[in-house]
Amino acid sequence: QVQLVESGGGLVQAGGSLRLSCAASGSIFSNDAMGWYRQAPGKQRELVAISISGGTANYADSVKGRFTISRDNAKNTVYLQMNSLKPEDTGIYYCKLVRGIYVYWGQGTQVTVSS
Fold first, then answer.
1. Who is most buried in 19, 65, 67, 80, counting CB within 10 A?
2. Which pLDDT tens digit goes with each residue over 3-26?
3. How far apart are CA 55 and CA 22, in angstroms?
4. What phi, psi does 89 have (nearest 5°)?
5. Longest dimension (CA), the chain
6. Distance (Å, rounded) from C-alpha 111 to C-alpha 115?
7. Minimal CA–CA distance to 88: which of 21, 42, 22, 19?
8. How does pLDDT run across 30-80, given as a tens digit for each residue?
9. Which residues contact 34 (CB under 8 A, 6 or more apart)?
10. SS3 state at 15
C-alpha cells in the first residue's frame, strides 16, 4: 500500500508560479508511472502531466511549455512546476502512481489562479 500526499497548492495571481509536491509513503521505482491530474469545478478529472519509465514525460496540450513534471526517486517525491499560470488552471490537483496493476491516488491540493 502506498500513500500519496500532495502539497504546495494555494492562491496565486495569473502569470504567477507554484510548485506542487507529491510525497509517497514508500519507495517509488523507476518503472512506476507518476502523474498529475486536475479537476475543475463541474468538470471531469483530466491528465496534466505524467512521468513514465525511461524518463519520458507527457503533457496536456493546455500546459505544454508552462508546466514541468519531475521526480526524485531517492526522496520518493514527484513535483509539478507550474509557471505562467492562468485562471483556467484552477482546480484540485491530484497525484497518481501506477505500479503494475495497482493505482494509487492522493487526496489532492487546491490551486486557485485569480485574474
1. 80
2. 999 999 999 999 999 999 999 998
3. 17
4. -85, -5
5. 41
6. 13
7. 42
8. 889 999 999 999 999 999 999 997 779 999 999 999 999 999 988 999 999
9. 22, 28, 50, 51, 69, 71, 78, 95, 96, 97, 98
10. coil
Between CA 42 and CA 29 the distance in angstroms is 34
What whole-number distance in Å separates Cα of residue 85 and Cα of residue 66? 8
The residue assigned the cell 487546491 is 110
Asked if 104 contacts 3 with a C-beta cutoff of 8 angstroms, the reply is yes
Is residue 106 scored above 90 in pLDDT? yes
The C-alpha cell of 2 is what?
502506498
Question: Are residues 48 and 80 in contact, defined by beta-carbon separation less than 8 angstroms?
Answer: yes
Cα 17 from chain centroid (whole Å): 14
Question: Rounded to whole angstroms, how far apart are CA atoms 105 and 79?
Answer: 15
CA angle 59, 77, 25 (to 5 degrees): 125
Measured in residues, the chain has a length of 115
